[in-house]
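User: Fold this; tokens only.

Assistant: Input:
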Amino acid sequence: MTISALVLLVALALFLIQRFDVVAAEREQVLVEHGFARQIDELNAVIATQVDWDDAIRSLDHKFDADWADFNVGNYLYTFNGFSHAFVLDSSARPIYSAVKGERSDAAGYAPFATVAARLIPAVRAAERQRGPFKQRLGKNNIIIPPIQTTTTTQLAGVTYIVTATLVQPDFGKVLPKGDRAPIVVTAKPIDKALLGAFSARYLLNELLLIEPTVKPDKRQQIVLRDADGAGLVALSWVPRAPGTVLRQSLQWPLLGGIGLMGLLAFLVMRRGGAIVSELIASEARSRHLAFHDQLTQLPNRAMLFERLRLMLAQLADGDHQLAVICVDLDRFKDVNDTLGHHAGDCLIQTVAIRLREACGQNATVSRLGGDEFIVLYRCSSQQQVADLADRIVMSVAEQMVSEFGRIEVGCSLGVAIIDHPGVEPSEALRWADVAMYRSKDSGRRCVTFFEPEMDDALRARRALESDLREAMSDGSLHMVYQPQVDRGGQITAAEALVRWNHPQRGAIPPGIFVPLAEETGLILPLGEFVLRRVFAETSGWGDLRVGINVSAVQLRSNGFAALVTRLAAQAGADPANYEIELTETALLGDDPVTAANVEALKRLGFSIALDDFGTGYSSLSVLQRFSVNRIKIDRSFVCALDESGEGEALVNAMVKLARSLGLSVIAEGVETEDQRQRLLACGCREFQGYLTGMPQDAGSIAGLAGIKSAAAIEALSRRA
């Protein structure tokens, strides 16, 4: 009986091992099928992101822009996502653009894909007709259009491709297709070693490779990839994990050791099997946790946020509560990264996450949307409850953090959207909170703003101004003027270059509005390059007359900035010795090596350095010495104070003496009255700039005032301008 029982147990164990392998293989088969479908969906989403927007309609449909197609379709899809072929077809399915491996090619590159594309295009056109005309949503600033795409696989020259046809559509609806048929973008991504390697690593597959679909090797699993006609092209084949077989092999020698050890071996089998199952369950739990949680803070991530937000919005149908969506954004978080490093920024993010959880308690969901932005979802019954929670968040985040990097202080700006009715989309709710948060930023930071409908109008106006600024750099709306700088005798010694914007509809827009907008939206680098290019072109014939050029902290922190300045000066034939780079004090703070390298390179090339708005920032002596500043510019606020009290004169006198002791020249800005000039002379200041000494003027006027009367120089100046 004992032997029979043991034999039965062994037989049962072997049966269970075999079944364990079968079940594991079946589950892996389903996992791979769903995973490959998800892979295609992710690739399609990448393509839709590039072609479903207003700029795509403008550049591919209204007036075809090959450079735009190079950057946003051919090069982008190949560089970042591995699409080896990209084509743009017009309304008649004729190729008007072709890119192979990120480089523009002739139409012959489309010929191999023409047949498979022809199978996909009818479905796209049918969906386009069924979609109907575009309709703006009431109360919204955009239109929602699901992507129109069809995908198949094909095989060309022994290479298997995933081919997708995507209809070009608008996103905000400001630019609509010019006809009934929009262009179609056809893309092809090879199923190569890179894709197979990434897919294998993602789903933990062993020995993943492509084989003929009619071949079914022993001990391997496979899924067949089919073309548009349903015919099998190739098969993804892999060796399934066999936890049961591994277990049996590990017990082979003990089984041969004798029937007397069967009991012990059975016990070991159970323990080993339990460990494997526990490991698989734990691995699945970890994978799910990673999929829905931010790795740095362990807070719910964007995916879980949208899932919970969608559920909480649907529950508003009960009508007994409201939902507050609170957007929390740290103030000047970038300064922490720039001055202390990204590790300090990560430590700060982790600390803020802990403080938010403590401030919000169990009744709110705290998630990290990305970067230094957090979202809090809070069920409430009144606005006062939300206001109290928001105040707790502001106070909690504002507490000083003591770390290995020293004491760090940051604040946060909050935007709150309170929703009391179902039917609002999650993305719209988040956008409302985001709009309110930016209003808090504009209001001075460290404050709370509740969303109001009129804020949407302000945001649209801001985005319109941003778009107009992009166009202004090429349509002639931006131009340069120059304000003279004179010595005590009234002779022009230099001029400061100033950028001006004459908007076609709004008229003159002050630099105090569009320059900060450029810094916030990332346009400061192209705007700075525009200014440098124009100034060098317009002033290279001015001889020894020095020209001051303002440079922002963002430009100075840009790799290769000094090289850019040198190249533009060389192209215009400008002598660096005649130009002065004007920097603010805050641009030189911190230990940023890129900033230091750019300043050092500019000085080595012959440019002089001026410290603009001196006295309004930190005014650190170490900055003056460390960067070998050539000149300081006394800020206009101190010049205005000369008319008010003797304290202003004492401050200016101290600044002049400081500059003299360090061997620096000094100039006063904002001189508007003769009395101010006389007081500055009494303090020892010998150079002046302001409305008293000269208004900003165009390059030709400054050249005339400075006595630059060479006909050749004037002609060269006009030709460059």
